[in-house]
């Protein structure tokens, strides 16, 4: 979370999460320490987080089904960062009128945001 806070060009005031419990206790404590409001979505309501659900599906279909050359978690994380960069900078999105996310931001929100998308 600290890496995300460092990279975003704006102050993170709140975070919306699903009810996953993997790291919830640690995450809740971190949010409290950082004074970030935490909103937990109700169970079995993926439509409340449609954008995230759609990107998760895309990564399941386009990244995780491909053979990996990673020999470690660090290598896998590096491959994932490259895939995320491709997703944001080169892959057109139907919902964004076939723009990439970076093109959509540049066209609709010009200014400081354009150089900060990960």
Account of the protein in words:
With 118 residues, the protein is mainly alpha-helical. The chain has a domain at 67-118. Helices cover 46% and strands 7% of the residues. It has five helices and two strands. It has a two-stranded parallel ribbon with strand order 1-2. Helix 2 links the parallel strand 1 (14-17) and strand 2 (37-40). The protein starts with a helix and ends in a 10-residue tail after the last helix. The model is unreliable at 114-118 (pLDDT under 50).
Fill in the keyword field for this structure.
mainly alpha, two-stranded parallel ribbon, 46% helix, 7% strand, globular
List strands and helices in order, with pairings.
Layout: H1 2-7, E1 14-17, H2 24-33, E2 37-40, H3 50-62, H4 73-89, H5 101-108
Parallel strand pairs: 1-2
What about the largest sheet? 2 strands, parallel
Count of alpha/pi helices = 5
Beta-strand residue percentage: 5-15%
Write the H/E string, N to C: HEHEHHH
- Number of DSSP strands? 2
The termini sit apart by: 14 Å
If strands are numbered along the chain, what order do they take across the biggest sheet? 1-2
Q: What portion of residues is helical?
A: 40-55%
Note poorly predicted spans.
114-118
Class from helix and strand fractions: mainly alpha
Q: Give the rounded overall mean pLDDT.
A: 84
Which shape, going by the Cα principal axes? globular
Question: Rg from C-alpha positions?
Answer: 16 Å
């Amino acid at each position: 979370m600290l890496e995300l806070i460092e990279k975003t060009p704006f102050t993170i005031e709140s975070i919306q999460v699903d009810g996953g419990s993997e790291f919830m206790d640690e995450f809740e404590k971190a949010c409290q320490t950082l004074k970030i409001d935490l909103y937990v979505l109700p169970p079995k309501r993926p439509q409340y987080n449609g954008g995230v659900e759609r990107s998760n599906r895309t990564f399941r279909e386009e990244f995780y089904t491909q053979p990996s050359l990673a020999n470690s978690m660090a290598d896998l994380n590096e491959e994932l960062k490259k895939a995320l960069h491709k997703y944001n900078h080169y892959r057109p999105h139907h919902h964004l009128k076939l723009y990439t996310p970076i093109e959509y931001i540049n066209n609709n929100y010009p200014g400081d945001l354009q150089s900060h998308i990960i």
